Amino acid sequence: MWFDSRRSAIHARNGMVATSQPLAAMTGIQILMAGGNAVDAAVATAATLAVVEPMSTGVGGDLFALVWNAKEKRVHALNGSGRAGEHASLEELVRQGLNTIPEDSPYSVTVPGTVDGWENLLNKCGTMGFQDILKPAIEYAENGFPVSEIISNAWVSSVPKLSKLPSGQEMLINGRAPETSEIMQLPELGKTLRAIVDGGARGFYTGRIAERISQFVEQQGGWISQKDLAEHSSEWVEPISTNYRGMDIWECPPNGQGLNVLLGLNMLEGFQISDMGAQSTDRYHHLMETTRLALADGFRYITDPESEHVPVPVLLSKNYAQKRAREINPDRALQTILPGKIPPTGNTVYLTVIDKDGNACSLMNSIYRNFGTGLVVPETGILLHCRGALFSLDPNHPNALAPGKRTFHTIIPSMVTQNDNLIMSFGVMGALQQAQAQIQVLTNMFDFDMEPQQALNALRYRINPSQATAIEEGISNEVQAQLAKRGHDLTLISGEQRTLFGKGQIIARNPETGTLTAGTEPRSDGIAIGW
To answer: What stretch of H or E contains 520?
Structure first.
């Protein structure tokens, strides 16, 4: 069964952009047609998304990216996530009686990593500067853009969050959310983007903007100082990978949750998934169980590797996967899921671009929840993210809050290669759904030979820790009944709530012909444009 999207795959040869908003996708295509490469187009697209989809992303958030260099035949990974402030205090929050960090509180604000991530991408892999890259985003911020239906609905639900402080009015129209198709202007954000053009990333992390960010956060009781901002830098890191059905699947390493995808695929490799049927009870059961095991390991072990040891080689070993897979009962759902034992030693935007030379960029930008914390830095249009809410307040947990530490991160751009050729660049937005949706999409393609649009159209599930497993309307009553009989606690999701299952974009490349084939998420405003 399929989500009834009526969408067909998009094909092109000279370049392609796939993302969640048409205005942003057009920005990327215009950059490609002007001679920019995949990274140039990706950053320009991300900047436009920061304006036209502000509930999901912005300069007050974080960034992760994978870059495929066609000449080097190599995947590069950029960690553009920020750290907790130097004065962050787990003890203070515990004294207040908190068990978790509230998402709408100043305590959840970590240093925003987006702007430095953009600059780092352009400096290492791009050909253009901020003056050209940010021009479309600035024009939309200053002159306005028509708001899409899905974005308007999210905006309406977030009015109370944005109305907590006077500066939140910068994101509203006379105290209300913009209606569908209404023109929305964000002039203060436009000024901030112009400051980035003039001063680069340092124009954001030092000077007037940095002073405003730190003063505002500290006034609200948070912990971001001017020193924290000035010392921030994104980091090029070694990507991690595993081989599944002859394909090399690439992810950013921890503190991101890409490890969960690879853990799940390694476990699935031991089962003959293709013999089960794409919409069969057996397939859903095995995918759900491996997802639950992978997420349990991720919650236990993924954190900032600079602060705590993350045993990636052990977790990615095939022997470990085989051991975990043996815990799966083909006839019964596990009632208790614990992390595997090893030897000692949320909202988001996604975009992908492939250019005419075969270079690719898979990029995610996020402020985590709808409109992040809801805290807007006065006179800047900067919505601060709430990524720090993922820190644990258990001092013995690997992901415990600590000064200068990066938290567990949900955003995971991905790529697939084979024999030193790029096969596809892809990702699925949706907090904890990202890893499990990637697993579902990858098995759709490499176990059942689906093309990108089919793989995204296929019905999905979502594992919710401590809650019923969400399944998408369209999965047959018979399969639902059989899954329930095996012990799965299920809840059916339909209508606009289908966005719960993630919002994905895929661009595949034929290594022999160079032809690009894209699929775009049918559960959102996604679009792929090629030329």
So the answer is: strand 516-520
